[in-house]
Write a structure and sequence with these properties.
mainly beta; 5-stranded antiparallel β-sheet
Length: about 300
């Protein structure tokens, strides 16, 4: 049985026949937020319900990076290589300094507590963009059940003034985020309000101009499942989570093919020596596959 399905012949050139999907670790409850640290040769990711950040290192395997982690979800690195994290439990975005101390970057907007920051990315101007759906406060599974005081939005943090502004306000529950390589496009996943079977679930694409985005357009709807988290490769293809694996979408929104994974995928990231290794967080496990494609990653 093949580990992939190609809807377009082009996708067959993206995969390598002798590079299968491999399970690197398992036994978690719900894993998300993978981020590659090339200088440390390791991958960090969140095991959210178990309130910990895990670390996978080639040759050494799995270890605990931080416990408790305040129910962290998404992670990225800033321009100085520091870990930036979304915390459900404390409803904030934090930065881990080089000395290990933690700095609070954002925990409120217009005097009200954030919902539960979910995914985070950093632009080349140093601004931090994060999504703030309500998933971490609707139950006690991935945080603490709490009152929602703000709409679910995407925010931008000014790198100079630290001012927080709402930049995407038209989605039910914005989730995964990614910029195009030239940062002229912002892709945002809307995974819908929790417990709402009729909620919109799709990827929207917004044109970026400076600190602002336009009204956006519908880019792609993943099926089965939904686009929770995604990253882009060197050609602008979007590699996104789905209910049956990882889907590859062209820059025009065309479905090219899928990598089959035996668990529901939550997030992905590129890593390895040439950014050609796709790391996949999927329900209870961490997987990887080596591709004939490299991801874009900053720094």
């Amino acid at each position: 049985m093949s580990f992939y399905e190609a809807a377009d012949p082009l996708f067959s050139t993206y995969v390598l026949g002798n590079a299968p999907v491999k399970q690197l670790a398992t036994g978690f409850d719900w894993v998300e937020g993978p981020v590659w640290f090339g200088d440390a040769n390791c991958l960090l990711f969140s095991d959210i319900p178990n309130n910990r950040i895990m670390r996978w290192t080639p040759g050494d395997g799995i270890s605990i990076y931080r416990e408790p982690s305040n129910y962290t979800n998404g992670h990225t690195r800033d321009l100085q290589g520091r870990l930036v994290s979304c915390e459900h439990g404390t409803r904030r975005v934090t930065r881990t300094e080089h000395d290990g101390s933690i700095t609070i970057i954002a925990d409120s907007f217009e005097g009200k507590p954030l919902n539960s920051p979910n995914d985070v990315i950093v632009k080349s101007d140093g601004s931090i963009w994060f999504s703030d759906p309500h998933y971490g406060i609707m139950t006690n599974y991935e945080g603490f059940k709490s009152k929602q005081e703000l709409p679910c939005q995407v925010y931008r943090i000014n790198p100079d003034t630290k001012e927080i502004s709402a930049v995407v306000t038209d989605l039910d529950c914005p989730n995964g985020l990614a910029f195009s390589h030239d940062e002229t496009k912002l892709y945002v996943a809307d995974t819908g309000k929790i417990f709402d079977e009729n909620a919109n679930r799709l990827i929207r694409c917004y044109a970026v101009e400076g600190n602002n985005v336009d009204d956006g357009t519908d880019f792609h709807t993943v099926a089965p499942g939904c686009a929770d988290g995604f990253r882009l490769d060197e050609d602008g293809n979007v590699w996104t989570s789905a209910g049956d694996g990882v889907h590859c979408i062209s820059p025009t929104g065309k479905f090219l093919g899928k990598i089959l994974v035996p668990e529901t995928v939550s997030n992905i990231c590129f890593g390895g020596r040439a950014k050609h290794q796709l790391f996949i967080t999927a329900t209870t496990s961490l997987y990887t596959i080596t591709l004939n494609r490299s991801g874009i990653q900053k720094p």
